[in-house]
Amino acid sequence: MSDAKISFREIREKQMISVAELARKAGVSTQTITRIESGGTCRMDTMRKIILALGYSVEDKDLIFGTSNF
Q: What domains sit in the chain, N to C, each tagged with a CATH number?
């Protein structure tokens, strides 16, 4: 992981949000959150939901997910 990229797992943990809470806020399953945090890929729509649920804007996509997560 590069220094410029902050994983959404780190952001979630710093905000003290559980996987279940993030999944609820983003409208996705807890399995989806866990899979992505473990390095899995996701669709752009799922990425957008997670970014917004964490309180970021869509323009922060590369900061949170890097460029190779979809």
A: 8-64 (1.10.260.40)
